[in-house]
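SUBJECT: A protein chain and its fold
Encoding: whole-number codes for local backbone shapes
Chain under study, with its fold:
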Amino acid sequence: MRILFQSRKTLYTVPGGDTVQLVKTAEYLRKLGVEVDISTELEPRLDGYDLVHLFNLMRPQEVFLQARNASRQGKRVALSTIYGLYTEYERKVRGGLAGYVVRHVSPWQVERLKVIARALMNREMNKGTLFAAVLGYRSLCSKVAEMTDVFLPNSASEMQRVHDDFVVSKSKPFVVVPNAVDTIAFDPARVVLGDNTKKYEGCVLSAARIEGRKCQLELVRAMRDLPYQLVLIGKPAPNHLSYFEAIKCEAGDRVHILGQIPHEELPEYYKAAKVHALISWMETPGLSSLEAGAMGCNLVITEKGDTRDYFGDDAFYCEPDSVKSIRDAIVRAYNAPVDSALSLRIREDYSWQKTAQQTLEGYRIALGQK
């Protein structure tokens, strides 16, 4: 079987959880004997491929062109949806003119405006941008769903969101393919702290792209008077540079802003940390939470998105817009013993080996082999 992975043009320049999901899924599919190539092209030739695997329905301006290209060349399409609107964050947190607009138009109009804004501000302009501007965001997502042969959501609750928003998806098969961790790299028994990480031992860590919906600023404020070190790892999103500046302005002596760290170096930082905090308005479920949990961190998260599907009652939950709620959760998590059962469960249930097997099951359904 030969598969082409396709995703957003900024897959590597603005890395996120979808970047890791794509790269690791490809790696472990290859171990199962599947040939996988990765491309961010919009309309490549597909000769020799059995199926095209697309990622991230939140970027329909690119995924639409890639799905249409596959359909025109007679190729089946699998879609890892990674889908969840940020409506609550947009309406509760956005200020100024942008905040006024998002509170007075539909979520679909907001997403269309964001596509246009990215094209103008970040030069993310392509033919798909015009489709999104003319046809609308929801219409473009619906067309992608119509051209999809099998959906590969990260959870059942994520698939329900897709069903709720795009009726055409209800008639299509799906296979839940949970996000995962590298059980070898993220094994606390194998990881030894080096000179760069020993100094952060016992810290509170947050590894995520720095942007408003991840609430790093609220986390900094929540920990202002706590006696713990806070380590922030991640690259600021292009449109959130002023937010990043606010974080730097409010960060005290116990806050360490390290920027982007190579993924293979993260296990040491997770091992050094006592608590990992991912205070998001939407996660499906948050790859860094899975990795940190596998490494033995206590987790502070929110219930926004699909976190309950993965962590159940084995995490400390808080509200992203409440500094007091975040602070209380951090204190509870820090003072609690490490939950070794959570670490074991994550490494047993959420491995890339299992993700690859479930992905392959989806391919077989799409190709009519099952």
Notes: The first helix runs from residue 17 to 31. The chain has a mean pLDDT of 93.
